[in-house]
Amino acid sequence: MLDDHAGFVKRLSCHHFRRSPLTNLHALVGSRICHDLINPLGAIGNGIELLGLTGVGAGPEFQLVEDSVANATAKLKLLRLAFGAASREQVCSRIEILSILDAVAHGGRLRYSWHVSGDVARLDARVALLAAMCVESALPMGGEIDLRKSGEHWEVQTQNDRLTLDPNLWGPLGRNACPDDLSAAQVHFGLLAPMAEEAGRKPQVSHGANWVKIAF
């Protein structure tokens, strides 16, 4: 079912990603998928924790399962924030976002630096995370993604000598347009502009030989 949904996203033409009921429908679909998967993963995590308390779970195999469940749960929470539905009244706590980013980065090649004090509007958090996903796509070998907020101004950026910017993705993004022929793995490039518009913002892309920044 997830593959069918991914294929449907891939086939969508660019105009579908403009602010529309269909865009909102996809946000609800994202929320539903993440919600339905997080609950059983949480139950598995609780079961693993109980096994650990009884002494049954020991050794590297048990630790591998525990780490995998924690990472999968964190990724689903991240995807729910980035692709799920959001309203102007909703907020995300700093603690929640930090815990998700730390768990997602655990044991991987990516690191996130969240330089934002206090809680943030969920609409803004969604734009920031979509921007981070775009930046992540330019880091095939991993690296550090810096997210910061000063007043009402946000910046999501990275500096890396192995930065790879696909002009077919970043060119349209710089014009707040949807790239053509997006794959499911690149859908964040098509969602950033309309989700930013919903938050009352407009992304601005700048880059050099070894850095890229998305401000809004």
Commentary on this structure:
The protein is of the alpha+beta class and 216 residues long. It has a single domain (2-215), classed as Heat Shock Protein 90. It is 54% helix and 16% strand. It is built from seven helices and seven strands. It has helices at 2-11, 21-54, 60-83, 94-105, 122-137, 167-174, 187-198; strands at 91-92, 110-115, 120-121, 143-150, 153-159, 204-207, 211-215. The strands form two sheets. It has a five-stranded mixed beta sheet. The chain has a two-stranded antiparallel sheet with strand order 1-3. A hairpin with a 2-residue loop joins strand 4 and strand 5 (153-159). The protein is globular and about 55 Å long.
Quickly describe the structure.
The chain is α+β, with helices and mostly antiparallel strands and 216 residues long. The chain has helices at residues 2-11, 21-54, 60-83, 94-105, 122-137, 167-174, 187-198, and strands at residues 91-92, 110-115, 120-121, 143-150, 153-159, 204-207, 211-215.
